[in-house]
């Protein structure tokens, strides 16, 4: 059902907000009930459309942060100063309010247990995720999906955040996740500090000879820098999939 959703004709759906929760000081988790939702794959996104009383519309895209197994749709929205859509979503929208969304969108930046089901567990190519800031959103869906499905595919996440308070989805980050903080660490911090560079990628990601499928998501500069370094380390460029977004240019 979820695979069929990738290719079906997209129409605008009515989504009702069930909850608007703080995820970090700058990010809210919006939880929607979407009655006509036909399922999605981890890594896909949706378009959100707001319409003013005078008919003016504004539209933005957001990665889906919830796994296909969750009946509700979760979006992590960063409140961008001067933004046209995010301030309404994060500050004004309340439970019971409706908006329009369209999706799921995208078949390139996705991974699911079903895709590996026909491959013996000991022959599966590992999955390497590298996130900068809010770029962790689609990876939270992948991690949650892998656990719920009991999938044996090796998955790792290297996650760069500004501070410990900026880390998203903390309840989903297990031993397969390495978090590095770039703007100071709190007392007792046992993770890494500093930006994602060549040395950290060599140390905390699957090596090229493991032939991992690599997904990199975050601000443009972060994504391009990480992708270039991975290829320079020996990863095949065809195995590295990228997802860039606007907003804060510095992920951490």
UniProtKB/TrEMBL annotation:
The keyword Iron applies. Pfam families: FAD_binding_6 (PF00970), NAD_binding_1 (PF00175). This is NAD(P)H-flavin reductase. Residues 10-111 form the FAD-binding FR-type domain. SUPFAM superfamilies: Ferredoxin reductase-like, C-terminal NADP-linked domain, Riboflavin synthase domain-like. Keywords: 2Fe-2S, Iron, Iron-sulfur, Metal-binding. It comes from Geodermatophilus obscurus. InterPro entries: Cbr1-like_FAD-bd_dom, FAD-bd_FR_type, FNR_nucleotide-bd, MRET, OxRdtase_FAD/NAD-bd, Riboflavin_synthase-like_b-brl. Its cofactor is FAD. GO terms for molecular function: 2 iron, 2 sulfur cluster binding; oxidoreductase activity. The lineage of its organism: Bacteria, Bacillati, Actinomycetota, Actinomycetes, Geodermatophilales. The keyword Transmembrane helix does not apply.
């Amino acid at each position: 059902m979820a695979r069929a959703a990738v290719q079906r004709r997209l129409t605008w759906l009515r989504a009702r907000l069930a909850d608007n929760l703080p995820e970090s000081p700058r990010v809210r988790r919006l939880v929607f009930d979407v009655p006509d939702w036909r399922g999605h794959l981890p890594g896909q996104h949706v378009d959100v459309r707001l319409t003013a009383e005078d008919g003016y519309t504004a539209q933005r895209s957001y990665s889906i942060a919830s796994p296909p197994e969750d009946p509700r749709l979760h979006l992590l929205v960063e409140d961008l100063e001067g933004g046209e859509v995010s301030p309404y979503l994060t500050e004004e929208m309340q439970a019971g309010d409706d908006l329009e969304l369209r999706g799921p969108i995208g078949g390139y930046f996705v991974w699911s247990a079903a895709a590996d089901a026909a491959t013996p567990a000991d022959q599966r190519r590992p999955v390497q995720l590298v996130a900068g800031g809010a770029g962790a959103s689609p990876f939270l869906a992948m991690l949650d999906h892998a656990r719920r499905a009991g999938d044996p595919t090796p998955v790792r996440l290297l996650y760069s955040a500004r501070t410990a308070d900026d880390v998203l989805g903390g309840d989903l980050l297990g031993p397969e996740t390495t978090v590095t903080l770039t703007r100071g660490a709190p007392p007792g911090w046992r993770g890494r500090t500093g930006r994602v560079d060549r040395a950290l990628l060599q140390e905390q990601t699957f090596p090229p000879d493991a032939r991992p499928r690599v997904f990199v998501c975050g601000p443009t500069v972060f994504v391009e820098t990480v992708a270039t370094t991975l290829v320079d380390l020996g990863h095949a460029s065809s195995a590295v999939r990228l997802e860039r977004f606007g907003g804060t240019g510095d992920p951490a």
